[in-house]
């Protein structure tokens, strides 16, 4: 099969093709999904209704710790009320070690090299878990965000898939076909907490410096 490269595919169409293949197989596959927050998971969980989904929550990027627990607790509440069938696995939270790793790129602008490193670190940890537990698929919810380039995320996922052969990477572009609008609509209807910065200390400081 021709290997997909960064520029020659449409993530949304690829996701629909994969779902069509699954329908034809008559199976309900398992899928491990990296989730960054409850708001971003609203539409992807609807989109992935044909999968048996487990969320892997690995977001040591989030600063400060109060914010980390707030986002995680919001996700837990959402799953309890709306998706009780979805399992949640929590990774260890260690913002200090995480910040140390990304600090080499602390002066990068948002969406730059620091963010690409940050996507890769979290996706790698979640993908490793998926592979060790023999999930059929792995994906990340982050392609629903307008702030994140789905092609970059899918490129990282496809590269990681070479290391993790038990689990296929599910290419996605959840923001397409109004996915971003849908996820925001669901979150608003539930009165969900919505953060105003991405997560790491650098995005936190930048957000607060523009408040002055
Ligand atoms: S801005 Fe967001 S994606 Fe970029 S490094 Fe910070 S937490 Fe990670």
The computed structural class is alpha/beta
Count of individual domains: 1
Q: From the alpha-carbon coordinates, what is the Rg to the nearest angstrom?
A: 17 Å
Mean of residue pLDDT? Answer: 95
The CATH superfamily is HUPs
- From the 3D structure, determine the CATH topology: Rossmann fold
**Small molecules bound in the structure, each named once:** iron/sulfur cluster
List the SSEs and their pairings.
Layout: H1 11-25, E1 30-34, H2 38-47, E2 52-57, H3 65-82, E3 87-90, H4 95-102, H5 113-132, E4 137-140, H6 150-161, E5 168-169, H7 179-189, H8 201-209
Parallel strand pairs: 1-2, 1-4, 2-3, 4-5
Helix pairs in contact: 2-7, 5-6
The structure holds iron/sulfur cluster (SF4).
Question: What do these coordinates show?
Answer:
With 212 residues, the protein is an alpha/beta fold. It is 49% helix and 10% strand. The chain has a single domain, classed as HUPs (Rossmann fold). The protein has helices spanning 11-25, 38-47, 65-82, 95-102, 113-132, 150-161, 179-189, 201-209, and strands at residues 30-34, 52-57, 87-90, 137-140, 168-169. It has a five-stranded parallel sheet, with helices on both faces. The longest helix has 20 residues, at 113-132. The radius of gyration is 17 Å and the shape is globular. The mean pLDDT is 95. The structure holds iron/sulfur cluster. The site of iron/sulfur cluster has 11 residues, from helix 5 and helix 8.
Q: Which keywords apply here?
A:
212 residues; alpha/beta; Rossmann fold; five-stranded parallel sheet; 5 strands; binds iron/sulfur cluster
